[in-house]
Design a protein that fits this description.
- The protein has two domains: 161 residues, Helix Hairpins (Orthogonal Bundle); 51 residues, no CATH class.
- A hairpin with a 6-residue loop joins strand 3 and strand 4.
- It has a four-stranded mixed sheet with strand order 2-1-4-3.
- By secondary structure, it is mainly alpha-helical.
- The mean pLDDT is 96.
- The structure holds zinc ion.
- The site of zinc ion has 8 residues, from loops.
Length: 235
């Protein structure tokens, strides 16, 4: 293979490597986004669970406060009945109230106890769920850290490959550089093999003289259809 073609093939190989690394970074970013979404969902789910527990605690407290208030009301009414001089009608009313409120107090006290017991049991469950949540969270964080390390590795590989690319590009004859850059920018490989008289880039049949020139290997030859650089792969 003539020297210019050797440089072009080497350069195209490095450019293909760089393109592969770009693709890997895109994949990593997608994976990272997926993990971050899962982490956010994990946190959101546990936050809602904590809120549900707080709501249960809150209703237990509210019930217990309602029982205290009722108790207080009974004491006030009873005190009035025991110590104040009040009209008969009002006394009747207060007595009825005290009887009614005592029944209500028993109910409220039972309900408050029931809710407290539920909240206590839920607290135990919540602690267990928190451990499981932190475990899942930790695994996701580890996966994210592994992704970050992988990305740093790829970036380092890219940096090394870019340096190599700059070197190789300078070794390509100046008259071919612009054409190479245009081919690279249009996508795909700028340097392709000739296989069975067909261009490895556009897959069109090459005229006989082009194939002969590639075989003779005295100059850099391009495809008459897609203008990619052509080389004969070692058979
Ligand atoms: Zn072609």
């Amino acid at each position: 293979m003539n020297e210019a073609l050797v440089q072009l093939v080497a350069l195209a190989e490095v450019d293909a490597g760089l393109r592969t690394l770009d693709g890997r970074l895109v994949d990593l970013e997608r994976e990272e986004k997926r993990l971050r979404d899962r982490l956010a969902a994990e946190d959101e789910g546990f936050m809602r669970r904590q809120e549900a527990h707080q709501a249960l605690r809150h209703s237990a407290l509210a019930k217990s406060r309602e029982a205290d208030d009722t108790d207080e009301k009974i004491r006030t009414y009873q005190h009035k009945l025991d110590h104040d001089i009040i009209p008969y009608k009002e006394m009747e009313y207060l007595r009825e109230q005290v009887t009614f409120l005592r029944g209500r107090l028993d109910e409220l006290a039972d309900e408050a106890l029931q809710l407290m017991a539920e909240a206590e049991a839920d607290e135990g469950k919540l602690r267990e769920e928190e451990v499981a949540h932190e475990k899942r969270r930790g695994r996701l964080e580890e996966d994210l850290a592994a992704l970050a390390r992988r990305r740093a590795e790829i970036r380092a590989e890219q940096d090394a490959l870019r340096l190599k690319r700059d070197e190789l590009f300078q070794r390509v004859p100046a008259r071919l550089r612009g054409h190479y850059a245009r081919l690279l920018a249009s996508g795909g490989s700028p340097v392709v093999p000739v296989v069975g008289g067909v261009c490895g880039g556009c897959h069109l049949r090459l005229v006989e003289t082009t194939v002969e020139k590639v075989k003779a290997d005295r100059e850099v030859v391009t495809c008459e259809h897609c203008s990619r650089f052509l080389y004969l792969p070692p058979s």
